[in-house]
């Protein structure tokens, strides 16, 4: 595919060959060294990835413009083939090795996440998946993916694939209008406009939702645009010797300090990301104009050049090596010896795969025809993509089988705690459910419900409330379940009880927010604090408007570790408002919370579920219920649900052959189904229905 452009005498003349810029390879070395160093030692954001984005833009657009200037043609297929030939072979190898090692190291409960991230990475949409997880409360407990580093590569590839097509289309328009000689100023104007728009969007979206903006392509596009503008406007500019020294050394030192000064993980990619971007620009503009004391003398040293040539391989390898080491060692951060081992192994893998895969595969593919290169590149991705797709399909089948097994007598679940023969573990010869490979997705829902979203304008943010409804309006009773994810767990049994007893059930749920007059979980300054406050401000009005017979909310809050169960005063204040409106309220005692991730604990000790239990006295403080009985507003009662999860001594991880927890504190939907008969017994006694 090509776009023919009319040539002028100037474009027919053969331009001088572009001089090599070894200092840019040195800048790559510094950037990747900072990325690895900060990831392994502090976990902070270094700004190195922003440098890579700037350099991608620096080489991309001018390369296409030069092709247009020399030949009058823009061949997007050739540009795409060249880019993918350089990036994909090594990326596919890293993904394949990571998948194999993950199957050995990562607990089975994390396998579906690994499969999903593999699919996203091999299709260069990992940043899109991470954006989804950033805004999805259900994914908030996901551990770091060993292929998460592909987010920045995904951003670059998406841009590197789109820009050649856009430039080709622009070239065709200029050719049709006879404006070929104006290509350069038009290109500069277009890149400037896109860069400015992206920067404005980056600032706005970072302020609104920094976690989602961090991984998104559009808020990052301006960083590539800055690199492109530097190449288009300043490529031939060389500052004076003293200015070059100031720019070069100042840019390099400021880049090294960036990660220590800025909290990029919580402020990028807004205007704060201009720090590493401008540092990269300063070094690129300084080039080799600083003379014998210029920064290029450092950046062109043989060891720095060696690292710069292998920067791509080191960037790809260091992250899975680090994450898989942490998983295997059950650590949150590496020890000193572990950090040295991670860095050393990453360097070895980068050196070996650069020489055996990256260089030979890239050179061979780029030397061939673009169509053949693209076919070869696609073939590289097939094994990883097929593995991810087949694994995902298998996990889906396991989830479907689990849904069919919940009525099996071999899986009594919570009912086993109420029997004369209490069974808190598994059943011999029968695997407990849900399987570890699907337990992370066993979230609750209100089956057969319809939902509507109400948005009211408040200052500083609107109040957005989603209300879901199950059952007809002429039902015998109307129940509203309201609160955070711990209240949402009860949607499963309440949905079943609604169908069984002719109740209409409503849900008003928001992650991290409860029926309360103050925040019980999300602290001021955290993401979503203002949105949660706005949601709470209108919550009682929404509930009263539904005219319910009963409101069900979280009644106490448990905590992992030494902290004891409490009755938050904000709960009581909100209940008072409903009591004043003549609405009855039942507060459900919170379920246990563990200090460790329970599914991972069970993966490590599958035949000894007692290793993953917690003592009842470490979770519950019975005096809380006794004290609350004297202070509760009229029409408000607390339902002690501790017997649904615990014996008199312990709170097990497996009850009646059903796994209780999907992480450290959320109960599986499968287990909550088995709670239904116990809840029905107690609820009907309290309500008299």
UniProtKB/TrEMBL annotation:
Residues 1-20 are annotated as: Disordered. It holds the Pfam family SGNH. Keywords: Acyltransferase, Membrane, Transferase, Transmembrane, Transmembrane helix. The keyword 4Fe-4S does not apply. GO terms for cellular component: membrane. Signal peptide: none annotated. GO terms for molecular function: acyltransferase activity, transferring groups other than amino-acyl groups. GO terms for biological process: lipopolysaccharide biosynthetic process. Residues 22-352 form the Acyltransferase domain. Residues 451-680 form the SGNH domain. InterPro entries: Acyl_transf_3_dom, Acyltransferase_3, SGNH. The keyword Transferase applies. The chain crosses the membrane at residues 24-41, 47-66, 87-106, 155-174, 186-207, 213-235, 242-262, 307-327, 333-352, 373-395. PANTHER family: ACETYLTRANSFERASE (PTHR23028), ACYL_TRANSF_3 DOMAIN-CONTAINING PROTEIN (PTHR23028:SF53). This is Acyltransferase. It comes from Geodermatophilus normandii.
